[in-house]
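call fold(seq) -> C-alpha cells
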Amino acid sequence: MDSSSSLENLIKEYIAKNDARVQSHNATLRSLENQIGQIANALNVRSQGSLPSNTEDPRREGKEHCKAILLRNGREIERREKPKAVQNEPTSIQEQDEQHQQEEILFEASNQQDLIRSSLTSDSADDEEEFVE
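ret:
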C-alpha cells in the first residue's frame, strides 16, 4: 500500500508542477500577443514611404559642423568655400550641369594649389631643420 500511495503522491506532484508550468506559459503567450499587437499598431500608424523619425539637415544655418581638415602629420588645411559666381541663371539643365562642373574644377584647383603650397613650405622647413642639426 505504501508504494501505491507514494506513487500517487509523485503523480499528484508532477501534475501540480505541470499545471503551474502551463499557466506560466499561458501568461507569457498573452504578454507576447500584447507586444505583437502594440508593434502592429505602431507600424500601422507610421506613414508609408517615410523614415521612422524626423531627420535634420546638418548643413542648415545655425547648426554646427566641422570644416577643418587635419593631416596625419599634424598640419591643418584651410578649406575655402566655393566661389559664388554672380551670373545670369542658366536656362537649361545642361547649362546648370556645365556651370556646376566649372565651379567644381575651380574649387578643386584652388585646394590643390593650397596643398602644393603647404607641402612646399613644410618640405623647405624640414630641410632647414636637417641643415641646422
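The chain has two helices and two strands.
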